[in-house]
Design a protein that fits this description.
The complex is a heterotrimer. Chain A has twelve helices and three strands. Chain A is mostly helical. Chain A has one domain (about 60-280): MetI-like (MetI-like fold). In chain A, helix 3 (about 60-90) crosses helix 7. Chain B folds into two domains: about 1-45, no CATH class; about 55-260, MetI-like (MetI-like fold). Chain B is mainly alpha-helical. Chain B has helices at about 5-25, 30-35, 50-55, 55-90, 95-105, 110-125, 130-155, 160-165, 170-185, 185-200, 205-210, 215-225, 230-250, 255-260; one strand spanning about 90. The longest helix of chain B has about 35 residues, at about 55-90. Helix content of chain B is about 75%, strand content about 0%. In chain C, helix 3 packs across helix 4 and helix 3 (about 100-110) packs parallel to helix 5 (about 140-155). Chain C has two domains: about 5-235, P-loop containing nucleotide triphosphate hydrolases (Rossmann fold); about 245-355, OB fold (Dihydrolipoamide Acetyltransferase, E2P) (Beta Barrel). Chain C has a six-stranded mixed beta sheet, sandwiched between helices. A five-stranded antiparallel beta sheet of chain C has the order 16-20-17-18-19, with no helix packed on it. In chain C, a hairpin with a 2-residue loop joins strand 21 and strand 22. In chain C, about 25% of the residues lie in helices and about 35% in strands. The chains are: A mainly alpha, B mainly alpha, C alpha+beta. Strand 1 (about 5) of chain A pairs parallel with strand 1 (about 90) of chain B, so a sheet runs across the interface.
Chain lengths: ~290, ~270, ~350
């Protein structure tokens, strides 16, 4: 769309800018401030330079948390994106069932995150939970509070349960926006279902898939509440992802300097990876 | 493939409903039954857990607190995002692109990073433990999202509409409120839906910024889980009730869900 | 290649149609010879797209049969019917090159690569697409994309019929003419049956050897462009084709003679009229109205210049009579008299020609 040059438009964005600046810039400055200072309490601070950054970047604990984070995000993306795509492709396109499907599928997205954690906590209890009891009854040894493997599996299944619908809804919206003529042309051209998917649906879904992957990447990288309520980061540190670790350091141990330095590193990682990914996906697009 | 097509969504929906069923089932069981062993459905059907929530003020005030700050947040976010989205969609101005991307980066900020600084900031300005504090804090991620969604919807409205209105002599604000806002009503609805959704489901910031007076229901639940030990039935009932507002809201936007989740961009 | 026969086709989008309005197609029978160039012409909502989708097999008709060369294909899938279709909005496979787009239908049918290459190059040459073969199809302009859609139909040797659904809608005006003559030329070269659906009379009349005019789910007339122009079987055809359309005036018929405003008028078919005289109209095209020293008295209202001739608007009571006058002929002012060419003046009853 052609736009008019108009500097007065700044008045339109001023409320947004001041609100977000209040919420983003002041706290961010606080974080930066802490990240370069040392304190012994009583609000006395000393200049510490990049000491905390060096400490964070060299600490095994941070590396371990980052590795767990990457494994978690990688796993859920590898499951949720294809699964969401398959479900969206299989969804009915018209008729009374469409609304029913959409409403039921959107339901997990509107449940408070700690309730999601609590819900799966109750579901997975080995003695009285449907899932925990069921898996044990099938002869598998399962206890997510004691076995890291079980804890990981539960956290991942919970995330799939919680967020796959987002991918489904995005893909479904993308599919619905493909004009019928494309499918008719494909029929006339004798295209098999695979060719229809490969040459019509997938190219048209590129934009929504980009949005889906970006959102899922960002949000899974920030995962906190559900995992904390479900496993508390345990057993041991086995499900301590970046956010959980950060809160442990900042609010649990009150190590402000390292926590602040870690916050900044963490934020930069999310930003950089989102940017790289976005650029790669949109390389050939003219937007 | 086509004929068995219904199977995949059906299985998926069953998978989605299982944990919800279990939560509901738990909420209708007595504590004795829960601790007594595994039962597939409530043998000893009871409404006591719900009765407790509706009569105990620490419980039901949690719901009211949550609904208040979610409502305030939605109103603020959409109100400030609307003119901004209009400006981004219609005008070129100094730094517009940078500003847009800066806004979006706030959607990428992990709430854990902001928890402590937020606590200090809102304590310093004397807003700690108020509804408005949580509502304002949640604008951090809701305003960028609302701007993004609304910009998508506004850009799909031809510019000729604005120009016709000017030619017809409408003053800008009258045009904006009387003509433009009804035109993008669906977009505003979708933006409200998303603000509601993300404010309703967030806990970390809401918990950090409140202690008693504005404590959200989600935080009341975490306290229960830790202090009163094994009151699973009560916890399940409280959890079940938090699903209700979400389900209610989804029902209203059901026809726009798909387009809305694509952020008005398909 | 095939002869296409439509037998007693009816279609309704509703489950159980109750009245006439529920039918998108109200019983039609039609035959298209092999190798012809045909057009389906009608205003939007007349059912022409429904008919097109029935022929291509995307919709199954509620009643009636479709025959290709006498073989019933009513229940055959689009694939089995071997048809090609060019849509209103260009449909190309965005991520594929122009070459791969043209090769797509052949590869789907398992044709060998050497043969694919030969045919694709031959068709690309016909369509002037050779220079863009290696480009991505998504980068082409609208007319280029429409050529690709058409090319995907042309590459297949087994195609029974190529159908065009308003193919020039999104093409720039100055390219419309080019693409239209390209279509005409291709039809001569390859001799496939082509069916062209449009609401634009110029496109239909210049492309087709035989035009079928539709209205409200019915066929109003099928004929050559000349037939439609000179012998409209229904006043709708007279209105719809020609610019300005046919003049339609109230009239009476007494003793085999037509009377307009009390004046006797010679006509082709008034002698065949046997009825009681209700709902009668007289139709004559502006091309066949001339000024005369006596005849029907009218008032000249407006003269508009239209290139090599002028459109003269006259008034007969509350009715309008348009006429086309050569540029060099004088136009009287105020009161004048008109004469209708008897060979091109027809009488209609309830809209239909009197036969």
């Amino acid at each position: 769309m052609r736009k008019t040059a108009n500097q007065k438009a700044w008045f339109f964005v001023l409320p947004v800018v001041s609100l977000v600046a209040f919420n983003a810039i002041v706290p961010l400055m606080t974080v930066v401030n802490y990240s370069v200072q040392e304190t012994f309490g009583d609000n006395v601070f000393f200049w510490a330079g990049v000491q905390w950054f060096e400490q964070v970047l060299r600490s095994d604990r941070f590396h371990a948390a980052l590795l767990r984070q990457l494994m978690f995000t990688g796993t859920i993306l590898a499951i949720e994106i294809p699964l969401g795509l398959v479900i969206a492709l299989a969804m009915p396109r018209k008729g009374p069932w469409v609304s029913v499907c959409l409403v039921l599928m959107a339901l997990p997205l509107l449940i408070p995150w700690n309730v999601v954690g609590a819900m799966w906590n109750i579901l997975a209890l080995p003695d009285i939970g449907l899932l925990g009891y069921g898996v044990n009854a099938l002869g598998f040894e399962y206890n997510y509070t004691r076995q890291p493997g079980s804890a990981w599996a539960t956290v991942i299944v919970m995330d799939v349960w919680h967020w796959t619908s987002l991918v489904v809804l995005l893909c479904y919206a993308g599919l619905m926006s493909i004009p019928d003529a494309y499918y008719q042309a494909a029929k006339v051209d004798g295209a098999r279902p695979w060719a229809v998917f490969r040459y019509i649906q997938l190219p048209k879904l590129k934009r929504v898939l980009t949005i889906a992957i970006l959102l899922r990447f960002m949000d899974s990288f920030m995962v906190y509440t559900e995992a904390v309520v479900l496993t508390g980061g345990g057993p041991g540190n086995s499900t301590t992802f970046l956010s959980i670790d950060l809160v442990k350091i900042a609010l649990g141990q009150f190590d402000l300097g390292p926590a602040a330095a870690m916050s900044i590193v963490y934020f930069l990682i999310v930003l950089t990876m989102s940017w790289i990914f976005y650029t790669l996906m949109m390389r050939n697009e003219e937007i | 493939m086509r004929r068995a097509g219904w199977l995949i969504p059906t299985l998926y929906i069953v998978f989605l409903l299982l944990p919800i069923y279990w939560l509901l089932a738990m909420s209708f069981k007595t504590t004795n039954e829960i601790l007594g062993g595994f039962t597939l459905w409530p043998r000893d059907f009871t409404l006591d857990n719900y009765a407790k929530i509706f009569t105990d003020s620490t419980w039901y005030s949690g719901y009211i607190n949550s609904l208040i700050y979610v409502g305030v947040n939605t109103a603020i976010s959409v109100a400030v995002a609307l003119p901004a989205a209009y400006a981004f969609s219609r005008y070129r101005f100094l730094g517009d692109k940078h500003l847009f991307f800066w806004l979006l980066t706030n959607r990428m900020a992990p709430p854990a990073v902001f928890a402590l600084p937020f606590f200090q900031l809102y304590s310093a300005v004397g807003l700690f433990d108020t509804h408005i504090a949580v509502a304002l804090a949640h604008t951090l991620f809701n305003v960028p999202l609302a701007v993004w969604i609304l910009e998508g919807f506004i850009s799909s409205v031809p510019k000729e509409l604005d120009e016709t209105a000017y030619v017809d002599g409408y003053p800008f604000w009258r045009f904006f409120i009387r003509i433009f806002m009804p035109t993008i009503a669906a977009g505003i609805g979708v933006a409200c839906f998303f603000c509601f959704m993300f404010s309703w489901v967030e806990l970390l910031l809401a918990k950090t910024l409140t202690s008693v007076a504005a404590k959200p229901i989600a935080a009341v639940m975490t306290r229960t889980a830790s202090t009163s030990g094994y009151e699973l039935g009560l916890l399940a009932a409280a959890g079940s009730l938090t699903i209700v507002p979400g389900a209610f809201v989804i029902y209203f936007v059901r026809n726009y869900i798909a387009k809305g989740f694509a952020l008005g961009r398909v | 290649m095939a002869k296409i026969t439509l037998q007693d086709l009816r279609h309704s989008y509703r489950g159980n149609p109750r009245n006439d309005d529920d039918w998108a197609l109200k019983r039609l029978t039609l035959e298209w010879r092999d190798g012809g160039a045909y057009a389906l012409l009608g205003p939007s909502g007349c059912g022409k797209t429904t008919l097109l989708n029935i022929i291509s097999g995307l919709i199954r008709p509620s009643e009636g049969r479709i025959l290709f060369d006498g073989i019933d294909v009513t229940d055959a899938t689009p694939e089995l019917r071997n048809i090609a279709q060019v849509f209103q909005f260009p449909v190309v496979y965005d991520t594929l090159t122009v070459y791969d787009n043209l090769a797509f239908p052949l590869r789907n049918r398992g044709v060998g690569e050497a043969e694919v290459d030969r045919i694709v190059r031959q068709i690309a040459a016909m369509l002037d697409l050779e220079s863009t073969l290696t480009q991505r199809a998504s980068g082409l302009s609208a007319d280029g994309k429409q050529k690709i859609s058409l090319g995907r139909g042309l590459v297949r040797s087994d195609v029974n019929v190529i159908m065009f659904d308003e193919p020039l809608t999104v093409i720039d005006p100055h390219l419309k003419w080019q693409l239209r003559s390209k279509l005409k030329e291709l039809h001569h070269r390859i001799g496939r049956t082509m069916i062209y659906v449009t609401h634009d009379q110029t496109e239909a009349l210049t492309f087709a050897d035989e035009v079928t005019v539709m209205k409200d789910g019915m066929i109003v007339q099928t004929g050559t462009p000349v037939d439609l122009f000179e012998r409209p079987r229904h006043v709708f055809v007279g209105h719809f084709i020609g610019s300005p359309g046919m003049n339609v005036l109230r009239c009476e018929v007494k003793g085999g003679k037509a009377l307009v405003a009390g004046q006797p008028v010679e006509s082709v078919n008034a002698g065949r009229y046997r009825g009681a005289g209700a709902g009668l109209q007289l139709g004559v095209r502006p091309e066949f109205v001339k000024f005369a020293s006596d005849g029907i008295a009218v008032d000249v209202v407006k003269v508009a210049d239209a290139g090599r001739h002028r459109i003269v608007e006259t008034r007969l009571g509350d009715e309008v009579v348009n006429m086309l006058q050569p540029e060099d002929e004088a136009v009287p002012q105020g009161r004048a008299h008109l004469r209708f060419d008897p060979a091109h003046t027809q009488i209609y009853e309830d809209g239909w020609i009197v036969d």
